[in-house]
Design goal:
Structural class: alpha/beta
Radius of gyration: 19 Å
InterPro entries: L-lactate/malate_DH, Lactate/malate_DH_C, Lactate/malate_DH_N, Lactate_DH/Glyco_Ohase_4_C, Malate_DH_AS, Malate_DH_NAD-dep_euk, Malate_DH_type2, NAD(P)-bd_dom_sf
Protein name: Malate dehydrogenase
Helix content: 40-55%
GO biological process, one term: tricarboxylic acid cycle
Bound molecules: 1,4-dihydronicotinamide adenine dinucleotide
Oligomer: single chain
Shape: globular
CATH topology of the largest domain: L-2-Hydroxyisocaproate Dehydrogenase, Chain A, domain 2
Enzyme class: oxidoreductase
CATH architecture of the largest domain: Alpha-Beta Complex
Family: Belongs to the LDH/MDH superfamily. MDH type 2 family.
């Protein structure tokens, strides 16, 4: 059995963490031979609730759970961590403009970046889930200059999983038979779910999804908008935002980053090097593969005129969010 690694989860008293913590502590993320020591961060008023979560983790009697540290102090939470799930953020309150929300949350990620910079392992892998996830990841990285920029990522895996599930349903196949869908851009309603390079396994042979679906209009319209609006549809039905599926996506993202993707592509928000004509130095979701703990953007894909338009829209939004966030961080 390996020595335990320390793993931080922020927003640990919240609803995504409630599903995520079990997945991490049961071995679904770092593998069945990797014990974990959980560092759980939330704000001071939530310490009572967090204590209840700590009690439940103990009651799970999980063999891989080496210990739990609940805290309201980011420097305690991030001390020596090898992985950090940054889930905690301020929810949108009634009457709050998108800009106010960005402003409140960007400040949290500035402070957490500074704490990570001070006390985390320099090879820590960071996944930002809290919204606006892409821009929060960018700000967190900016304030943690001693940690490589490629170690900061944002979660678009939930959108990726949703897109894969929609295509599997459309084609009447199990979800495991569909691969290489792509989410481009921002984790927001401007994201571009793209099936043009996706493959479906039919009788052991990989067939392009566009040919199998044979309905270009569906792939450009209903498919795109269904994935873009899925979060709102879940809220309308459940009266609460996606949590089970968000936690599963966070697990998938971190597991693939640590353990590799094999021959599949996955979507990750990563720092843009300008690939595919996207704005540089924003956290943009690309198709990536992971080997030996390093992600790499899939190269050489053909971008249609339709895709170009969609990539430009979401890239523009990210550039604007970056500008607004940097403005907030000045004071
Ligand atoms: P929640 O409201 O149930 O939990 C959030 C937790 O974060 C609360 O316990 C709160 O006290 C805590 N928190 C607030 N400020 C904090 C700080 N400075 N440090 C540490 N903890 C802090 O929310 P839920 O449902 O767990 O969602 C969390 C975030 O994830 C939200 O921003 C949500 O929009 C986002 N999200 C992102 C998705 C993605 O695909 N990227 C999908 C679903 C949700």
């Amino acid at each position: 059995m390996a020595a335990p690694i320390k793993v931080a989860v922020t927003g640990a008293a919240g609803q995504i963490a409630y599903s995520l913590l079990y997945q991490i502590a049961s071995g679904a993320v770092f593998g069945p031979n990797q014990p974990v020591y959980l560092h759980l961060l939330d704000i001071a008023p939530m310490m009572g609730v967090l204590n209840g979560v700590v009690m439940e983790l103990a009651d799970c009697a999980l063999p891989l759970l080496a210990g739990v540290l609940p805290t309201a102090n980011p420097e305690e939470a991030f001390k020596d961590v090898a992985a950090a799930f940054l889930v905690g953020s301020m929810p949108r309150k009634e009457g709050m403009e998108r800009k106010d929300l960005l402003s409140a949350n960007v400040r949290i990620f500035k402070e957490q970046g500074q704490a990570l910079d001070k006390v985390a392992r320099k090879d820590v892998k960071i996944l930002v889930v809290g919204n606006p996830a892409n821009t929060n990841a960018l700000i967190c990285s900016k304030y943690a200059p001693s940690i490589p920029r490629e170690n900061f990522t944002a979660m678009t895996r939930l959108d990726h999983n949703r897109a894969q599930a929609q295509l599997a349903d459309k084609l009447g196949v199990p979800v495991r038979d569909v691969k290489n869908v792509i989410i481009w851009g921002n984790h927001s309603s401007t994201q571009f779910p793209d099936a043009s390079n996706a493959l479906v396994n039919v009788g052991g042979i990989n067939k392009p999804v566009p040919a199998a679906v044979n309905d270009d209009e569906y792939l450009k319209t209903t498919f795109v908008t269904t994935v873009q609006k899925r979060g709102a549809a879940v809220i309308a039905a459940r009266k609460m935002s996606s949590a089970l599926s968000a936690a599963k996506a966070a697990s998938d993202h971190m597991r693939d980053w640590f353990l590799g993707t094999g021959d599949r592509w996955v979507s990750m928000g990563v720092i843009s090097d300008g690939s595919y004509g996207t704005p540089r130095d924003v956290v943009f979701s690309f198709p990536v593969t992971v080997t030996n703990g390093k992600w790499k953007i899939v190269e050489g894909l053909t971008i249609s005129d339709f895709a170009r338009e969609m990539l430009d829209i979401t890239g523009k939004e990210l550039a604007e969010e970056k500008r607004d966030a940097l403005e907030v961080c000045k004071d």
